[in-house]
Amino acid sequence: MFLSLFRGTPGSAALDNCVFLGVEEKNSLYEDGDICVKGTMTFAIKEINQRSDLLPQLKLGYHIRDSCDDIPVALRALLSFNSSNLGCAAVYRTVSPVIIGDASSGISMALLRSLGSFRIPLVSYFASCSCLSDQREFPTFMRTMPSDAFQIRALARLVSYFGWTWVGVIGVESDYARFAIQLFLQESVQYGVCALLNVIQVPLHHYKLLIQGVDTMASSKVIINFSGESEMQGILKEIGRWNITGLQWIASEAWATATLLWEKFGDLLTGTLGFAIRRADVIPGLEEHLTSLRPSDIHKSGFLAEFWEETFNCRLNGSVNSHSHGVGNYLDRLPCKGTESLDDVYSPYSDVTQLRVSYNVYKAVYLVAHALQDMSDCKGGKGPFSNGTCADPKHFKPWQLIHYLRRANFSALGEEVNFDQNGDPIAYYDLVNWQRSPDGSLHLVKVGFYDASSPAGYSLVINDSVIQWPVGKQVCSLDSCPPGSRVARRKGEPICCFDCVPCAEGEVSNETDSLECTRCSEDTWPNRARDLCIPKTIEYLSYHELMGIMLCVVSVLGACISLSILAIFFMYKDTPLVRANNMELSFLLLVFLAVCFLVGLLFIGEPSDWLCRIRYPAFGISVALCISCLLAKTAVVLMAFRSTLPGSNVMKWFGPNQQRASVFLGTAVQVIICLIWLLTSPPHANSNTDYHSATIIMECVTGSEVCFWCVLGYIGILACMCFLMAFLARKLPDNFNEAKFITFSMLIFFAVWITFIPVYVSTAGKYTVAVHIFAILASAFGLLFCIFAPKCYIIILKPEKNSKKHIMQR
Predict the structure, then answer these.
(1) Is Lipid biosynthesis found in the keyword set (predicted)?
(2) Residue 385, Cβ neighbours under 10 Å: how many?
C-alpha cells in the first residue's frame, strides 16, 4: 500500500480536503490475517491529532489510493497525488511531504524512480527487498519493515540449526524473490547448506513449470519459498494436484502468517516454519476504532464499501461501487438496512490478534509524526541545514523531512524504534509454527525468535519441544561426510553435489561434513580412522628388540673369540708356530679385531650427536688397523723369503720397528680423513620422516657423503694392496705360506663390502644400521677364522706339528 501524508494548521477548514493517503488493493491486506491496514493508518493519524504532546501545532490528514498491486495503476495514482497536491498547495498552502507505501518491493522501486527528481520520501511498511537498502539508487527510501538481508541470515541459521544440508529454494519471478534467493545462496554457503535447485524463477502463470522443479526436490523434503500469499495459492493448488506430500515448508515473512491459505491447504502446510515480522500484542483503542464503522461512514470509500457489501451480503445504495457491479448476483442482494454492525459478525478486518503488518503501518505513521516534531523543535542558528538554519514545519521541502526521518528515534507501544544508515529498522522476527488445533483450525505457535541486535551466536532462539513437524518427526538431512573425510564439491554442479573423500595421508578431520582436512604436526600421524593425530612410532635399532640383541651377542662373541685366540697365542708364544708367524703383528691384529667387533655395538641404541661422531671414525680406523696389520704381516713374510737371495739386505727395512711404523702409518691416513670429516661436516643424529610418514626414523646421517665414501675407499685400497701381496706370495713354502689364508680372507672381505654398498644405499632406518653391523662382523669373522683358525687347530689339536723340525721340513 502507499499513502501520501499532508500537514495543515489546526483549525483549517479545508484540512480534510487537503490531506491524501494511498492504499493498495484489498486482497493484499489479508497476508497476515488482518485486513485493518487502512483502519490502522486512520486510527494512528486520529490518535496523533488528538495528542497534545506530539505535533500540537500541526494536524495530519490523508488521502488513500489503491495500487491494485500493479505498477501502472500505482503510477497513475501517484500522478493523481501530484495534480491534487499542486491545486491544494495553491489554494490551502499545503505541501506533500511524504508517501507511505507500497507493500510491494517492485512497486516501491517504481514509485521511487518516478519520484527521484522530486526527492519526496517514501516510507514502506512491508517492502523487504534488500535492494531497497541501496542509498545511492534510492536515497529517499525508508521502511518499518526489516530488510530481507536480516531474514536471509535468520533462514540460513534456522536451516543450519536443524542440520538440513540439502534444501530446495523456490520463488515466483519478482524482484523480491530474485534478490532473496540470491542472498540466501550466498549466506547459506558458510553454513554448508546446499540448495538442491538453486533457483526456480518462473512467471506467475507458469505454475506447472515451477511444480516440476518442486517435484525434483521432493527428496530433500525441505523447501524454502520466497513467494507472496497469492502466488502460494497457485503453487499449493498444483502441489495438491500432483499429490506431493511430506514437505517441510520454510516460509518467508511474505506468507508466514497468511492464515487464509490454511482453509484449502491445511494438510499440505501442517508443520510449516516461518519467520514473521514482529507482532504487537495490542494497540490500545484500535479494535474499537475498527468496529465503529457504520454504513454512513463508508459510502464514499470504494474499498470499505466493497468490504461492507461482502461481509453482510447486502447492497449499499449510492456507494461508489454501485456503478461497477454487474446486474447478476449483486442486484439480487437486498439493500443494506443501515443497522449492520461489525460487532455482530467475525471479520478479519476487526481481528487484532495478529497485528504484524498493521503494526508496521502504525510505526510508519508515527515515524513521520516524530520527524515533524523534531523539525518543529529545531532552534534557529542550531539547525542542520546551511548556516544553522531550520526548516519551517509549515513550509518545507520534502528533502528536509528526509533528514529528520533518518534520525528519528522514538518509542512505539514500548518498543524502541530506530534505523540504520540505510533507513532499515533493527530486525526482529518471530519464528512461528503452523499447527493444527483439535478443531482443525490453524494455530500459529511462536516457537522461537531471531533478534539481529543480539550478539553473534545468540541471535536465534528455538524451543524444539513445541514444534509440530509435517509427519510427526524432524525432516532428515542429506547423508553427511563422517570424520576422517572431507567434502569434495563436484565441479560445475550445485553445492549439494559432492563426494566424501578420505583425508589424504598425514591429514585428519574430526568434524562431520568438514570442508578440508587438517595436516598433523611433524611428530604426529593420523590413526586408522583419520579422525585423530597420534604420536608417530619412533624407530631405531634398539638393544631391546630381537635383531639388536642378536647383533649385540654376535659382536661380543667375536670380541671374546679374538681375545681367546690372543690368550692361546700368548700361552704358546715360545712355540715355533707362533714365533714363525710374526708374533707381534699377530697380537696386534687380534687386538684390533676385538676392537672391530666391539665397534658394532656403537651402531646399536638411540642415535645422538656424540654417538654418531664416534661411530663412523671408530669403524673406519679399526678396520684400517686390521687391514694395515695384515698388509704388514704379508709384506714381512714376502720380504723374508726374498731376502734369502744372495746380496739382498731387504730385511733391514722390515725390522720390528718398521713393522709397527707401517701399521700406524697406514692407519694415519685414515685418521687424517676422519679428522677432516669431523672438522668440516661431522655426522649427526637426525629424525627422518621422508621414508615412512607414520614413523620417525632416528638415524645418524653422515654429514659429508664424500668423507664417508673416502673412508670406505681407503679401506678398499688397503684391502687391494693386501690381496696383491698375498698373490705375489703364492709360491712360498707351504709351512710358511699364509698367503692362501690371507687371499681367502680378502675374498670374503671383498664379497661382504661389495654386497654392502647396494644394500646400504637401498635400505632405510634400522635395517641400514643392521646391514652396516653385519658387514663389519662378517668381514672381521672372515679375517679371524681364515688366518687364525688353522693355527689354533695345530696348537690345540695337533701339537706334534708345532715343532721346528716339522716347520723346517721344506
Answers:
(1) no
(2) 13
